[in-house]
Write a structure and sequence with these properties.
Layout (H helix, E strand, L loop, with lengths): L2 H6 L4 E2 L2 E3 L2 E3 L6 E6 L4 E7 L3 H16 L8 H17 L1 H12 L3 H21 L7 E2 L5 E9 L2 E5 L5 H14 L3 E5 L6 H13 L6 E3 L4 H9 L6 E5 L2 H13 L3 E5 L5 E4 L5 H13 L11 E5 H16 L2 E2 L14 H16 L3 E5 L1 E2 L13 E4 L6 H4 L6 E7 L2 H8 L4 E2 L1 E5 L3 H10 L4 E4 L15 E2 L2 E2 L6 H5 L1 E9 L2
Parallel strand pairs: 1-5, 8-9, 8-11, 9-10, 11-12, 13-14, 13-21, 14-19, 15-17, 18-19, 21-22
Antiparallel strand pairs: 2-3, 4-5, 6-7, 7-25, 12-24, 16-18, 20-23
Helix pairs in contact: 2-8, 3-5, 3-7, 4-5, 5-6, 10-11
The structure holds NADP nicotinamide-adenine-dinucleotide phosphate and magnesium ion.
NADP nicotinamide-adenine-dinucleotide phosphate binds next to helix 8, helix 9 and helix 12.
């Protein structure tokens, strides 16, 4: 794909929501400017939906669930539609990558990687749709007992701006495979690919109302959606604070929720680790997507004998990092919006004021537009584990280094935040790998590797404040359905 497309895609386009198989403006007529984080300029617009639009979308999804062809469609046919959608995503991959990249500021190669992962989600769940089944249960004499996995009904998906296409795919893939219908509310800062994918779902042949999209602010459209009495299940990815608000709203109707919240994930490097293998992964796990990744490896714990050497190596690599506009494909792009740029800058400045030592700073390409939302990657060394920068999720290209003395301290430090999403363990000692993997509180543990994002087949989710419920892999299909037990008395 030429650089040209990623700079001009969707220029001037007034995007529409997708409700009941039709393009839909907001009922109020309100619109939200879509800004490119690379230059701070408006290049398109989306509808600003409110409660009335949400109500329309939910009613359409409810009708599709209860009365439409979807409710009687065999599982393998739902699977075929998902597979077809994956194929259409691949076919339109250049446009989707360019859209995602321009809308969020992520480097174009990351946009392309996101397209590949997105396609894989629909392929995976397309294949899984007719392979999940219930049990028969040995029960009393004269009885037959069995279970079915049934869809919840209308699922509300509230999606963040960091990996909009991928996160939509893991929600939509699992929810639709199990026979739910869906109302999606993407983040107002990154709604474009969600709209395009709902359009492609119609092209693939999904019946109207199965895949609805409302766009707008979280406080308006998002709040109305999570509190809507006709929603049967809510799945959310985003900040812990908004997650709490959404759970409270869903609790009014006693609805189930999946919460994929933040992280402060550790990578634990023992003295015997293969450093050649570890070093690029330690850097990439925090720099990928500008650090705006829930599973970013934001804390690196180094065993004392190797602390100085590794800190020096990481400092050299951090110092060489350059933030560039999305289409220039730098080590990282700008942050997604001004608020995020401000949050990263403020947390870095506060840590410096508190005396945390800066080991290295990357740079911003001097030709990058001044009005873009760039930040310099920053590496902090010898951080106090209780310091704010050691505890709070920055969601930016900021890495903190800690020294530890032996296995027990490594476990204590790894588990010393409110979060528990992902962990990386680096050692050649097999027994130590197993002990650490069990003692670290995290939903995913990687040994001699790290997966920030990706891993379609691998169940993913948090302990502690990182959330609850599991997405990705086969497990997501359980969250997106409920067990029904049926007992026949034929004695
Ligand atoms: P956020 O508030 O959690 O937003 C995530 C989604 O929730 C967006 O679609 C947002 O819509 C929507 N939303 C906001 N308020 C809502 C409400 N009251 N009811 C229902 N939906 C609501 O995240 P943010 O403010 O954009 O970012 C803040 C911080 O969240 C980041 O700095 C980062 O630490 C964290 N974050 C984590 C993840 C993750 O993957 N775990 C992803 C993104 C952000 P609008 O954006 O349209 O308002
Ligand atoms: Mg944007």
């Amino acid at each position: 794909m030429g650089q040209h497309l990623s700079r001009t895609v969707a220029e001037g386009r007034a995007f529409m929501q997708v409700i009941n198989g039709q393009p839909a403006d907001a009922m109020s007529g309100g619109r939200i400017d879509v800004v490119s984080p690379s230059d701070g300029k408006v290049f398109a617009s989306i509808p600003a939906a409110g409660a009335a639009d949400v109500d329309r979308a939910v009613k359409s999804s409810k009708k599709a669930f209860e009365e439409g062809p979807w409710s009687r469609m065999p599982a393998f046919e739902r699977g075929r539609l998902l597979t077809k959608l994956g194929q259409l995503i691949e076919k339109n991959g250049d446009e989707l990558a360019a859209l995602e990249s321009r809308d969020t500021g992520k480097p174009i190669r990351q946009g392309k990687a996101d397209v590949v992962a997105t396609m894989r989600y629909y392929e995976f769940y397309g294949g899984a749709a007719d392979k999940i089944h219930g049990d028969t249960i040995p029960f009393l004499d004269g009885y037959t007992a069995l279970t079915l996995r049934e869809p919840h009904g209308v699922v509300a998906g509230i999606i963040p701006w960091n990996y909009p296409m991928q996160i939509l795919a893991r929600v939509a893939g699992a929810a639709l495979a199990m026979g739910n219908t869906l109302v999606v509310k993407p983040a107002e800062d990154a709604s474009l690919t969600t709209i395009r994918i709902a359009e492609l779902a119609l092209e693939a042949g999904f019946p109207e109302g199965v895949f609805n999209v409302v766009t707008g602010y979280g406080r308006d459209a998002g709040a109305a959606l999570s509190a809507h009495p006709e929603i049967d299940y809510v799945t959310f990815t985003g900040s812990t604070m908004t997650g709490t608000a959404i759970q409270q709203a869903a609790a009014i109707n006693n609805r189930g929720v999946t919460m994929e919240l933040g992280g402060k994930s550790p990578q634990i490097v023992f003295a015997d680790a293969d450093l050649e293998k570890a070093l690029p992964v330690l850097v990439n796990a925090i720099i990928q997507n500008g650090g705006q990744t829930c599973s970013a490896g934001s804390r690196v714990l180094l065993e004392k004998p190797i602390y100085e050497t590794v800190a020096k190596e990481l400092a050299a690599r951090f110092g060489a990092l350059v933030a560039k506009p999305h289409d220039a494909d730098g080590d990282l792009g700008p942050m997604v919006n001004k608020k995020q740029q401000g949050q990263v800058r403020n947390l870095v400045a506060a840590a410096e004021e508190a005396g945390v030592s800066v080991l290295a700073r990357g740079s911003i390409d001097p030709t990058a537009p001044e009005a873009g939302f760039y930040v310099e990657p920053t590496l902090f060394g010898s951080v106090d584990p209780l310091a704010n920068i050691a505890q709070q999720e920055v969601f930016g290209p900021v890495l903190t280094l800690f020294a530890f003395d032996g296995e027990a301290e490594a476990v204590r430090l790894a588990n010393s935040t409110d979060y528990g999403l992902v962990a990386g363990i680096w050692t050649k000692d097999g027994a130590l790998q197993h002990r650490m993997a069990k003692r670290v509180r995290a939903g995913q543990v990687f040994v001699n590797g790290y997966g920030a994002g990706g891993g379609i087949e691998l169940p993913f989710g948090g302990f502690k404040k990182s959330g609850h419920g599991r997405e990705k892999g086969f497990e997501a299909l359980f969250d997106m359905s409920a067990t029904k037990t049926i007992v026949f008395n034929h004695g």
